[in-house]
Automatic annotation (TrEMBL):
This is Chaperonin 10-like protein. Pfam families: ADH_N. PANTHER family: HYPOTHETICAL OXIDOREDUCTASE (EUROFUNG), ZINC-TYPE ALCOHOL DEHYDROGENASE-LIKE PROTEIN C2E1P3.01. One of its GO terms (molecular function) is oxidoreductase activity, acting on NAD(P)H. Residues 14-336 form the Enoyl reductase (ER) domain. InterPro entries: ADH-like_N, ER, GroES-like_sf, NAD(P)-bd_dom_sf, Trans-enoyl_RdTase-like. Gene3D superfamilies: Medium-chain alcohol dehydrogenases, catalytic domain, NAD(P)-binding Rossmann-like Domain.
Length: 342
């Protein structure tokens, strides 16, 4: 078999169409993965709508995948054909998730822990990487809270805020603060997610249905036992960013998924996350991160997102992206199954 099914975005601002393309052989250092589960992200519909990052069309998108090792490239050690693995896709067709076979650098791939499914595994790479690069990796690309996953690092007694706690990446930010030992972890989210976000590690929920975003900083100051040195904006919009700034002390850090804002004044620092381990500035941290992620998941320190399984194989992705765009996905990750494509 040398052909596979893929989902092409046919042209800039174009349509998603199921098509065929060759199955590529892994190059040195790469693994070919038979993709059983591929998760959807906002970036996928944003690329379709706004045409950025992608240079060549037709393009295959998708940055979250899980499946089986199909073939191993030269120099790769520690993996065998048939191993269950998960990893983050990247822009450029060979590394994308919305196809039946993808090539990923072996040092950015993890073995799927026995306690989670392919779909759950596919919910982890991009959301977790975003929060981990933003919070753990060294400055200036991250907040530098624990770039080496040193188990001795501990922030007990400290407080943190996450705006957008129920987003895919916000859920991982909550869990990373818990992993770091933060004593007070405040999430701004819908009240219906309270029990779920507390199960991930949030100690307090500020209900976004009750507290307008402009009141968040004031509310945080009443809750937190210690002044905040860090806040995390999982939404990226300007109002959330202001709330993040207003909640932290002078010299503190706002970690933000979208901001291009560099100088917050008052000595406050902004970390703009580029949540891909494939990027040169994140590559070394990415290697360390992927050595640690499977164990953290196996030990229950990091839980996957809750998943909703999409029907129809690759053909089901387009409708899922429309739902993401229309903000009709709440506290869950949509996951497609490329091998079910007819
Ligand atoms: N910089 C990077 O590398 C990077 C990486 C990943 C994502 N991002 C960006 O980060 C953003 C979030 O992505 P995602 O995939 O994590 O999100 P997502 O899971 O698609 O977000 C959906 C969630 O957002 C919550 N939400 C929406 N508006 C809210 C508000 N005003 N306050 C609090 N919660 C709100 C919704 O909660 P309700 O249930 O309350 O509606 C819902 O649960 C996107 O803009 C994405 O493009 C950037």
């Amino acid at each position: 078999m040398s052909e596979q099914k893929v989902l092409f975005l046919d042209k800039p601002h174009g349509s998603f169409v199921v098509s065929s393309a060759p199955i590529l052989k892994p190059g040195p250092g790469q693994i070919s993965i038979k993709v059983h589960a591929a998760a959807l992200n906002p970036i996928d519909w944003k690329i379709q709508a706004f045409n950025f990052y992608i240079k060549n069309y037709p393009a295959i998108l998708g940055t979250d995948l899980a499946g089986d090792v199909e073939e191993i490239g030269e120099g790769v050690e520690g993996f065998s054909k048939g191993d269950k693995v998960f990893g983050q896709g990247f822009f450029g067709n060979e590394m994308a998730g919305f196809q039946q076979y993808a090539l990923i650098p072996a040092d950015l791939v993890g073995k799927i822990p026995s306690n989670i499914s392919y779909a759950q595994a596919a919910s982890i790479p991009s959301g977790y990487t975003t929060a981990a690069v933003g919070l753990l990796s060294a400055q200036p690309f991250g907040a530098g809270l624990n770039p080496t996953y040193d188990p001795k690092v501990n922030y007990t007694g400290e407080s943190a805020l996450i705006i957008g706690g129920s987003t895919a990446n916000g859920q991982f930010a909550i869990q990373i603060f818990k992993y770091l030992g933060y004593s007070t972890i405040i999430a701004y989210a819908s009240a219906r997610h309270t029990d779920f976000l507390k199960s991930l590690g949030a100690t307090h929920i500020i209900d976004r249905g009750e507290t307008p975003i402009e009141m968040v900083a004031e509310t945080v100051k009443k809750i937190a036992l210690t002044p905040l040195k860090i806040s995390y904006n999982a939404l990226g919009d300007a109002d959330s960013r202001s709330a993040c700034f207003d909640s932290i002390v002078e010299g503190g850090q706002v970690v933000d998924v979208i901001s291009e804002f560099k100088d917050a004044g008052n000595g406050k620092r902004v970390v703009t996350i580029m949540g891909s381990a494939h990027l040169p500035q994140n590559r070394e941290f990415g290697r360390i991160m992927w050595k640690n992620v499977p164990g953290l998941v196996q030990d229950g320190v990091i839980l996957p997102n809750r998943v909703e399984k999409l029907p129809g194989g690759l053909a089901g992705i387009s409708e899922g992206l429309e739902r993401l765009k229309a903000k009709k996905v709440s506290g869950e990750k949509l996951v497609a199954f490329p091998q079910e494509t007819v």
